């Protein structure tokens, strides 16, 4: 019988992209477990839409689709799902009557507050073995890597 392959089977501590992906996947599993334990039915793409709207305010569906690298049809289905759950609503665009914006409902804002707590707990668990100076240094180093990559044409 063939073994199910996971990212942890590909351990290579010298590969920054793989290590970052493994950390991300492990944190997402922790967060998803807490979300499910609270009885919330939401997937990662839906989570991202809620996060974007919470941090940036109402957005046009096309902008959300580009950010998530979704096509228009997939984005419409994703928004429909979140709207059916009561987390988002469509509103006419303030300057363009033909366009819509997507915004969080009060239930969506409550969901974002809960999700933020899940993320904080997962981050705390991930770094529990690091002392405060090590945590600070880790963030400084990762920000430098990010900024270097952002400045590279």
Characterization of the model:
By secondary structure, the chain is mainly alpha-helical. The chain has a single domain (24-151), classed as Winged helix-like DNA-binding domain superfamily/Winged helix DNA-binding domain (Arc Repressor Mutant, subunit A), CATH 1.10.10.10. Helix content is 63%, strand content 7%. It has 6 helices and 2 strands; from the N terminus they run H-H-H-H-E-E-H-H. It has helices spanning 16-37, 44-56, 61-68, 72-84, 106-126, 132-151; strands at residues 88-92, 100-104. A two-stranded antiparallel sheet has the order 1-2. The radius of gyration is 18 Å and the shape is globular. The mean pLDDT is 88.
């Amino acid at each position: 019988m063939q073994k199910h392959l996971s990212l942890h089977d590909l351990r290579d501590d010298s590969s920054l992209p793989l290590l970052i992906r493994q950390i991300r996947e492990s944190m997402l599993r922790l967060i998803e477990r807490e979300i499910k334990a609270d009885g919330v039915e939401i997937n990662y793409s839906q989570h991202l839409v809620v996060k974007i709207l919470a941090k940036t305010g109402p957005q046009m569906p096309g902008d959300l689709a580009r950010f998530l690298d979704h096509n228009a049809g997939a984005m419409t289905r994703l928004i429909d799902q979140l709207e059916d759950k009561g987390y988002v609503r469509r509103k006419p665009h303030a300057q363009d009557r033909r366009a819509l914006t997507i915004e969080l409902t009060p239930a969506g804002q409550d969901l974002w507050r809960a999700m933020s707590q899940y993320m904080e707990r997962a981050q705390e668990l991930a770094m529990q073995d690091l002392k405060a100076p090590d945590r600070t240094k880790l963030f400084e180093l990762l920000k430098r890597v990010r900024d270097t990559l952002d400045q590279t044409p």
